[in-house]
TrEMBL record:
NCBIfam families: GlrX-dom
Domain named Thioredoxin: residues: 4-165
Keyword Disulfide bond assigned: yes
UniProt xrefs under InterPro entries: GLR_AS, Glutaredoxin, Glutaredoxin_dom, Glutaredoxin_subgr, PRX5-like, Redoxin, Thioredoxin-like_sf, Thioredoxin_domain
Originating species: Photobacterium arenosum
SUPFAM superfamilies according to UniProt: Thioredoxin-like
Coiled-coil features, chain-numbered ranges: none
Protein's recorded name: Glutathione peroxidase
Length: 242
């Protein structure tokens, strides 16, 4: 059974990080003092749930958290700095600060260090998230103590709903494009003009026309999807946006 640390100060730890070709020590005081910080901690870099769901959603919603007073979002894992740096690059997660708790000191101080020997992981972090204000934990969301790797309450949407319960999230937008396409540029500009964030899937780099035909029934670009609905090309998007 895990105990919430709400109302308690975070552990004082110095993290060994690699920035470029230099070793740089980063303290918890530097990370948390006089700041509002969201932390999410997980079992390991490059692991399935962490890479497919936990990290990407926090990265996606970083600007929304910032608009509601969050100064930084930290991802903590019991991994070394080289692994964490490689994972950040692999995930294109530039909105997140990656914290390598290689010795598990911070995680142990939070009471969240668990043994994952059955997976060959050794000691790792239990999955949780927390809101920290000036070094003091004000809210924690801890996954239930049950077998496996539960992921139900430490997600970005749960944390955002706690911080900003009245905020209505934008529907997810994806645009299939190809380089040099003027209609694609027009569609993207229309979305930007409306203040809509979107993910761009570039044919030849991120996907092929096979995938485009499979999901849209078309082979021309752009093809725009909003909230699970196929909108169509640039003219159809313009009409949809009014």
């Amino acid at each position: 059974m895990f105990t919430s640390k709400e109302g308690h100060a975070i552990p004082q730890v110095t993290f060994r990080t690699r920035q470029g070709d230099q070793w740089v020590d980063v303290t918890t005081d530097e990370l948390f003092s006089n700041k509002t910080v969201v932390v999410f901690s997980l079992p390991g870099a490059f692991t399935p749930t962490c890479s497919s769901s936990h990290l990407p959603r926090y990265n996606e919603l970083a600007s929304v958290f910032a608009a509601h007073g969050v100064d930084d979002i930290l991802c903590v894992s019991v991994n070394d700095t080289f692994v964490m740096n490689a994972w950040k690059t692999d995930q294109d997660a530039d909105n997140i600060t990656f914290i390598p708790d290689g010795n598990g000191e911070f995680t142990q101080g939070m009471g969240m260090l668990v043994k994952k020997n059955d997976l060959g992981f050794g000691d790792r972090s239990w999955r949780y998230s927390m809101l920290v204000k000036n070094g003091v934990v004000t809210k924690m969301f801890i996954e239930n103590d049950e077998p496996g790797d539960p992921f139900n309450v430490s997600d970005a949407d749960t944390m955002l709903n706690y911080i900003a319960p009245d905020h209505k999230l934008q529907e997810s937008v994806t645009v299939f494009t190809k380089p040099g396409c003027p209609f694609c540029a027009k569609a993207k500009q229309n979305l930007i003009d409306k203040g809509l964030q979107f993910e761009e899937v570039i044919l030849g780099k991120d996907a092929t026309t096979v995938s485009l035909r499979a999901v849209s029934g078309r082979s021309t670009v752009p093809q725009v999807f909003i909230g699970g609905k196929h909108i169509g090309g640039s003219e159809e998007l313009e009409a949809y946006l009014g």
